[in-house]
Specification:
Blueprint: E1 3-6, E2 9-15, H1 17-33, E3 39-45, H2 49-61, E4 67-74, E5 87-90, E6 100-108, H3 112-123, E7 128-136, E8 149-153, E9 159-160, E10 176-179
Parallel strand pairs: 3-4, 3-6, 6-7, 7-8
Antiparallel strand pairs: 1-2, 2-10, 4-5, 9-10
The chain binds inosinic acid (IMP) and magnesium ion (MG).
Length: about 180
């Protein structure tokens, strides 16, 4: 496994920059297949910002013209375990009534974050809500919910990089990795 040293920590690379880039293009093609109309991508901050930036350009590459919104939800404090309670830190601005929503997140773990966002969009009158995540940790689910589009199955490890943080650090890494020590 490739190793890197970042901020004095050894990182094991799980999903390389090239591997992610290839998969993002495939996911855009899968999303196009579903024929969603008046597509509004809702990126869940902060963790999905790099994924959103790459996926949006890939969606353009397959001929789609989505709009994009950002919602900032929080379930984690500075630690590595979910508190279970989801809060809206910053809401979207668009009216979602009658729109097809594609929710984007970095990781689907307990499912609480995505379930909260899906319920919120549905309650506001979205025509449909689909879920797209870069990583799925299916063995960690606490809420019955699955993603329509998954980049990769993720081992049951705390991962960082490509937008994902540990205690606010490591979001800048162009790959997804595990802190080895
Ligand atoms: P859920 O609500 O338990 O599904 O948690 C999903 C959220 O937890 C994601 O949006 C991530 O921001 C965060 N998260 C879950 N696992 C990890 C991880 O391994 N590294 C960094 N963030 C994670
Ligand atoms: Mg997150």
């Amino acid at each position: 496994m490739t190793k890197a040293t970042v901020a004095g920590k050894a990182i094991e690379v799980l999903f390389s920059e090239q591997k992610i880039a290839g998969r993002v293009v495939e996911m855009a093609a899968e999303i196009k297949q579903s024929g969603l109309e008046r597509l509004l991508v809702v990126s869940i901050l902060k963790g999905s910002f790099i994924f959103a930036a790459d996926l949006l350009r890939a969606l353009h590459g397959v001929g789609l013209a989505p709009e994009v919104e950002f919602i900032s939800l929080s379930s984690y404090g500075a630690g590595t375990t979910s508190s279970g309670e989801i809060r809206i830190l910053r809401d979207i601005e668009s009216d979602v009534t009658g729109r097809s929503i594609l929710l984007l997140d970095d990781i689907l773990e307990s499912g609480r974050t995505i379930a909260f966002a899906k319920d919120l969009m549905t309650a506001r009158g979205a025509a449909g809500v689909e879920i797209c995540v870069l990583l799925d940790k299916p063995h960690r689910r606490a809420v019955e919910i699955d993603a329509d589009y998954v980049g990769f199955d993720c081992p049951d490890k705390f991962v960082v990089g490509y937008g994902m943080d540990m205690a606010h650090g490591f979001r800048q890494l162009p790959y997804v990795g595990v802190i080895a020590g």
